[in-house]
Each structure stands twice: as structure tokens, then as C-alpha cells.
Amino acid sequence: MSIQLFVPSFRIDECLKGIRECLEKGWTGLGFKTVEFEEAWKSYSELPFAHFLNSNTVGLHLALHILKSRYHWADDDEVITTPLTFVSTNHAILYARLHPVFADIDEHLCLDPSSIESRITSRTRAVMFVGMGGNTGQYEKIVDLCRQRGLKLILDAAHMAGTRVGGKQVGPEPDAVVFSFQAVKNLPTADSGMICFKDQEDDQRARKLTWLGITKDTYARTAAQGAYKWMYDVEEVGFKYHGNSIMASMGLVQLKWLDPDNAYRRQLAEWYRNKLAGCQFVRVVPVSPGCESATHLFQVRVQRRDAVMLALNGHQIYPGVHYRDNTEYPMYSYASGSCPNAARASSEVISLPLHMNLTRSDVNMISDLLIRYAG
Ligand SMILES: Cc1ncc(COP(=O)(O)O)c(C=O)c1O
Description:
By secondary structure, this protein is an alpha/beta fold. The protein is built from twelve helices and 15 strands.
């Protein structure tokens, strides 16, 4: 039997029950379960605002779009970002007609604060921080740096559902935190995400912009039951970015399992770490001190990475790579060579299989093979 990198665990009967409720009510869109999920996420995440979206990618765009207009940034103003991420992070900067400036990464594969500092110019407006694999890296230093230099901070928390730092949920400090509930994330739906702004004004604007700029959503108008329900205003050109009740009903079920699932992910990581300890050819990417990582990924670094991956494939083990240095892609190649640590990591990183169906003996077997081929 093959071992894949990710296998989402869906609590099928419970999910179907929630979906059935939507179908019976005749309400599958915005409102109803989306409102319930936003409330549940706020109480889980301890963040003051939460708005449910159809993906993390649209949330990253929305965060930059809203901050850009609120603070009157110009086109091509700069956002400092990481080259080692899924392209959504950086495409979102381009969608907002801003300019991605790449800074280098540290041993956690997250942005290095000293590299960020060296890239700040008079046109820098924001930093986009990615918590790689659920890890917080040097997040606290970056929060301080942004505060001192008057930069906005956006946290791409696609991997961070359930990450805690110093015992507290990650995320009250940034101007916007964006989670992903895409099909293989720690809280899997099919495709959805959540944006959590620090400011109520931004949250309010987001709610309008995610439904094309319309001021009141259908659910609120129907719930109001008043005359002139159809008489809504369209105040500005928005987007079709809101989430729907089918995804929200899955999210509500999956949320109940997030902490226990993450605890098992950390257990798997611990088993990997114990097995791989002392192998000089396999370097485990460290979790930063004080971080209780959601452990979306378990990443190691090896030489001859591509050959090692193929050898594991020969045993029907299919790890992943997170990520290729984005400056290798044509739209970001202007920054090629500017982040040597990211370039090196890009050729060395492997994400080992990590999901609820794995057992300790799977971890032992994968680790033994890895040690054999990495040497
Ligand atoms: C770091 C990172 N950012 C953003 C995204 C985009 O998330 P979504 O698929 O919900 O748009 C992903 C998804 O893989 C990701 O890994």
C-alpha cells in the first residue's frame, strides 16, 4: 500500500448531517452556517473578528486590497515577502498591484527579521509572513520590527490552524491573519478560508467586498423580512470571495477535531525526530522555542534531494516539497539570486508523510528508508 504525503480525515457522517441541514433548509450559500462557523472560529481562535471566505488566496488579496486603499498606498509600493512559499502568498501581492520584495529565510524556513530589515525602503508598506508548516519561526521579532518601522503585518496562516505561541493562539498582533481550510490542510473542507482582521473597520469592509461591494447580504435581508429587501446598495467594485454554507458545515465539524488531530500530528513529528536524531545526513527543520506548532508539515533537509525522493517513491512512499524558491518562476525571476538561504533550502527540503492514518511503525519504516538513501 502506498503512503501519501497528505490524507485528509473527514468525519463523514457528521459532515453529511451538516450538509443535509443546509439542503433541507434550502440554504447552501452565504449566511446560515457561514455565520455559525465565523462565531465558532472566533471563540476557538480568540481573535476578535473572522470572516469566512472561499479560500486563503482570496483572503491574502483582500487583506492587501483593503490595507492599500485605507492607508493610501500607491501602485508598486513594496511588500516584503518570502520566496519559500506557495505562490498564493506572492501572487496576492501582484493582484493588489503591489511589488513583492523578497527577503531571505532562517533555519525555520520562515522570514529572517534581519533580512527583512535590510530590504526596507521608503516604499515598504507591509510584511507578509508565512508560518511554514505551522511553525512561528521568529514571528515575535517580526511583530516588533513591523511595529517599530510602521509596517503593516499580514500573517499567511495557511498552515497554522491551531498553532499556539507561549500557550496562546497565534494571531492577535498582525493587521490580518488568513487561514486556509483547503482540502489537505489541518482543518480540511474542500476549499475555504478565514480572514481575521485586527480592526473592526477592515472586517466590515471585507464583508462588503467579498460579495461584490453589496452592502447587505441576502441572508440578512431575508432575515429582516422587511419590504425593499431587493433595494441594496453597491458602494464599490468588490469580489466574489465569500464562503458558503456547505463548506462552513464541514468546517464546523472539522473544527471539533482540530486540536486532537494536531496533537497526533505533533506525536508523529516527535516519533520522526526521535528516529532521525543523530543521523548526520538528515537535518530536521527545527520548531522555534515556545511554539506549539499545528505541524501541518514535518520537514527535513538532505543533499541529493531529488534522488532521495525517487528512491522513496520506489518503496511507494510519496513525500512532498514545500516549496520551490518562487524566484525560479518567471514572474518573480527579477529577484533570482537575492535569497541564497531560500535557494539552498529549495533544493534540499522534503516534507515527510504526515496524516492521521499513519502509525508509529509507518514513521519508523519511512525514517529507516530515509536514513538509508540520504547517506
Ligand atoms: C503557504 C500557503 N499560502 C497560501 C495557500 C493558499 O491556500 P488556499 O488553497 O486556501 O487558497 C496555501 C495552500 O496551499 C499555502 O500553503
